[in-house]
Amino acid sequence: MDRQECESLLMRHGVKSTPNRVIVAEALSEAREPVSLSELEEKIVSIDKSGIFRTLALFRGHHLVHVIDDGSGSARYELCHSEDEHDDDDQHLHFYCEVCRRTFCLSEVPVPEISVPQGYEVTSTNFVLHGICPECSRK
Amino acid sequence: MDRQECESLLMRHGVKSTPNRVIVAEALSEAREPVSLSELEEKIVSIDKSGIFRTLALFRGHHLVHVIDDGSGSARYELCHSEDEHDDDDQHLHFYCEVCRRTFCLSEVPVPEISVPQGYEVTSTNFVLHGICPECSRK
DNA sequence: TGCATTTTGCAACCGTGTTGCATGAAGTTA
DNA sequence: TAACTTCATGCAACACGGTTGCAAAATGCA
User: Fold this and answer.
1) b/e per residue B20-34 (b: at least 16 CB within 10 A)
2) CA to C1' distance (Å), from A46 to D7
3) Which CATH number applies to A3-138: 2.120.10.80, 1.25.40.10, 1.25.40.20, 1.10.10.10?
4) Dihedral angle sign, alpha carbons of residues A28, B73, B131, B63
5) B14 and chain A in contact, CB less than 8 A
6) Residue A82 — pLDDT band, cuts 50, 70, 90?
7) N or C: which end of chain B has fewer CB atoms below 10 A?
8) Considering the entire predicted model, what is its pTM?
């Protein structure tokens, strides 16, 4: 996703475009896997971590990114694929490799239907499988 | 679970019984919901947090407790129900209430079967639903 | 009893995440 | 353009959970 596409993405989600925000959006779109705040810090040396943090918080509020807690101790962010600002349903399962400590999106695997007991109201889900990824188990 | 039951639980899992460990095991068994390290600190004033931490790490290594990451920023621990030291399959879904910030065990809900893509080896799962619990949504 | 080993408490530390504050940029009005 | 307001940003400091080093205390054993 190039600069212009990122800018229009921001607009569509009601986020005012600034140079920093475009940089963060580009970095997110370039990442194949969900990225942590510290990984973004490494990647984007021109912006202070508080700026990246605040940008991510803003993005989150506008449903531009969602957060995955893979148990690694730091949250990971990825761009929402859905264009609908209020649709959080582009969720999918994630796989955390305990060897290489990377988090994979299991896009192919359908998200299981869960029927919760009466009274519980579900707003989002966080399904993470832990184990060893193909690359690491081959060794 | 009283002191003696806790002691025998430790033994069965190959953990040497000490006064502190029994105290931690009792606290865990008394908790209805998975508890965090800081909650244990509050509950057990007689033991330093490093001691509680090390005890939990020991318990984890002997499959006496398992860890749930509910996204609240701190891990939560609960006693394994399975007696088999090598059986981690007493896992169940958890529900994190965003209002009261408590974590519930959804014991009744079956854990969904996930068929992962070829090559991935799953060792454990962490399925957490976020939303509003019956108690909070009633208000 | 003396010795080796384990357990524990204390204090310090690390990293992620978060906030206060002052500066700086951008937009608005006259 | 100048004066003003609003928003975005960088810097530094902080909060917190988690973790470790180390020395003292407790335990087990010869």
Assistant:
1) bbbbbbbbbeebeeb
2) 20
3) 1.10.10.10
4) positive
5) no
6) low
7) C
8) 0.88
